Amino acid sequence: MLVYGDAERAEKPEQQLGRVTAALDRAHAATAGLDRHDHLVEALIEAGAFAQGAIDAEFEAAGRDAPSPLRDAATALLIALAAEVRRSWASGFPAGPVDPASRHRIAALAGMPLPAEIRCRLAEGFAFYALYPEAYVEASAGLAGIRPVTVIGIRSIGLTLGAVVAEACGADRLVSVRPVGHPFRRELAIDASLAADLLRHPDTTYIVADEGPGLSGSSFGAVADWLEAHGIHRGRIRFFPGHGGEPGAQASPAHRERWRATTRHVVEFDALALRPRQPWHGLGSWIGDLAGPGRLEDLSGGAWRDCLALPRDRWPPAQRQQERRKFRWDTGGRRFLAKFAGLGGHGRDKLARARALHDSGFCPEPAGCRRGFLVERWIEEARPLDLAAFDRSTLLRRIAAYLGFRARRFPATPGSGATPRSLAEMLCHNAVEALGPEAGQAFGRLARMADRLDRRIRRVETDNRLHCWEWLQDPNGALLKTDALDHCMTHDLVGCQDIAWDIAGAVIEFDLDPDEQAELQARVGQDAGHPVDPDLLRFLAPCYAALQFGSWSMARAADGDPDEAVRLDREVGRYARHLQGFLSSI
């Protein structure tokens, strides 16, 4: 299935360094220690994005990882910022000025020859999966007394995580590498002089740091393969992963066997924030700082459905392995929903979006953001949307007003989403999986529209999550949209699209008939201030169905729970039927 993509953004290196400086300025000005710490973490993440983009630019030019002054200077900045984060974490988030050493390193970098442009890849663990740099600080305690140590950070996010480990354990060397090749069979390309530097101490312990492992664990495997091929005994290699599980189904037998045999140092989110070593390390203290003392209830992994007051056979499906961490916070008088929205700028941007949507009456009220968790008021006595009982004309007007508002209020930058050509490739590929080779050929004719539609797209921060179970009725009967902040910024390949993408989603999710579709299309165009392109809508509707078919199919393959399998199979079949309907109309 084609579902996922790599999100990246093009930046001028000077502008990315400016993001680091701005985060340090906010940390310096913060009056509360928790805010200061969050800004320090943001500075670390933004510096990691700069270092990754700059080193990758050199990698692309040389075709391999090689030593350079820019690599060394960017790595030194990361180490300095990692030290700031560790000190703040260890001492209870004190307020106060920021060490000027990091600013001096930024100034030195700004004075060096820099690439004209860098491409910063999204660090998914920081944005989506509640992966905290501080977890790697805690995990580094397992390296006490081990010397010498070389840390190898796997770009992208592993460079930042490797810097945290290297600083925390006092490593002798931090090097980052970019595994390349087939996603399930990656390899390293390392310059001879960098290789000699890595191998110069025969008794070194090698630490390999990254998020994951994912479907194959091939990035960790590529580094360990290279080390063993160059004479390093397996017992001198250790892994610092993002979770305590094993590589996924695509891991090779050799990599799986090595993974099980290799020492791993990992502190997962639950150990870090739900069973904290210090009181100020806990999620409860972070939320309590905003909402008052209370108790946590974990709603992650589909557990939120217990709150719907529905029998289990009427529960909506859930992609449990992909869900963000979420909790309900009960103060005894008020309740809140705390959902991971992303560290640093990710959470701050989503808080601003949540406030705009609430102020216009579309979403629950946000209370704030703490340590990457967006906290919003729990809507007491809210109930799931009952399509059979809800007036259809009222429903259409509400959806139209919501989508029109997004189209008008949340413009997106060019290049922030998949091109029509990429969507067409996904459509044809997933249609073959759903309906057979003939479907791919038939949709291929529709896909020929892709290139001429590209220039007609008006990209906005689309919702990308119009499913019926994502709507609630409050006690007054008003319809509210939940989970509305960031599905255009996840790790699937869609990204920000024309508002026609969300119209296509509404047509499919609410089974709108042609008259209802025409009404929705007209109303959204009126609210958006421009008509919705009918050719674009006709193209995007089967693309939406194909993306959903692929997404739910992958969720079904990954979830072995029999009850969940029934719900997931229902969704897979529903989208296959929609694809068949579009095929019949071509």
Can you characterise this structure?
This protein is of the alpha/beta class. It is built from 21 helices and 15 strands. Helix 9 links the parallel strand 5 (205-209) and strand 6. It has helices at 13-29, 33-62, 69-90, 101-110, 124-127, 133-139, 157-169, 192-198, 218-229, 253-261, 269-274, 283-291, 345-359, 392-409, 420-435, 437-447, 450-454, 500-509, 514-528, 534-558, 562-585; strands at residues 8-11, 118-121, 149-154, 173-177, 205-209, 237-240, 263-264, 295-298, 326-330, 335-340, 366-370, 373-377, 383-384, 471-473, 479-481. The protein is 49% helix and 11% strand.
Q: In percent terms, what proportion of residues is strand?
A: 5-15%
Distance between the termini: 23 Å
> Which stretches are low in confidence, meaning pLDDT under 50 for 5 or more residues running?
none
Neighbour order of strands in the largest sheet: 4-3-5-6-7
Q: Structural class of the secondary elements?
A: alpha/beta
Secondary structure: helix percent: 40-55%
